[in-house]
Design a protein that fits this description.
155 residues; 4-stranded antiparallel β-sheet; 3-stranded antiparallel β-sheet
Length: 155
């Protein structure tokens, strides 16, 4: 199926596409390299700053009710494996009251997070959850924008 295009930029690892906030997709020729700046999107995320600054990535999974435990177990395995990957500062798994699962990660750079997409644990996850989701997962990334108390305003 088609990935759900959000208003903010996100990357679909399976199809290796970047979806900017304007809603259209750009294929990148080399995985892990951002496209040229997109003027007019209002997001200001593209360019050298996004490549070297810490980022937060959020992945949402929508398991079928009968597959919930299997998807949860697969995500627990990939979360544990991700903790030892280079550039991973934090990865945490969360469960929602609606049956959705969310993995939140903090990475040293876009490059480190991008390399995670090619990790064996992610390829294993893709195989393990194939056919178990009600719809495609959503993967989004964000640059920090701390305001107020620095200790309380950034993940």
């Amino acid at each position: 199926g088609r990935s759900h295009v959000r208003r903010w930029p996100y990357i679909d690892f399976k199809n290796r596409r970047l979806y900017p906030s304007s809603g259209y997709s750009l294929l990148f020729p080399e995985w892990g390299r951002l496209p040229p700046p997109h003027h007019g999107s209002g997001c200001g995320f593209y360019g050298p700053r996004a490549m070297s600054e810490e980022i937060v990535a959020i992945a949402r999974f929508f398991p079928r009710p009968e597959s919930y435990e299997e998807v949860l177990a697969a995500l627990e395995r990939v979360t544990i494996a991700t903790h030892s990957e280079p550039g991973c500062l934090l990865v945490a798994l969360h469960t929602g009251d609606d049956g959705d699962l969310m993995q939140i990660g903090k990475w040293e750079s876009f490059e480190a997070w991008s390399a995670h997409g090619d990790a064996e644990s992610v390829r294993t996850l893709d195989r393990d959850i194939e056919g178990l989701l009600a719809r495609d997962r959503e993967i989004s990334w964000f640059l920090p924008r701390p305001v107020g108390d620095p200790a309380k305003s950034a993940v």
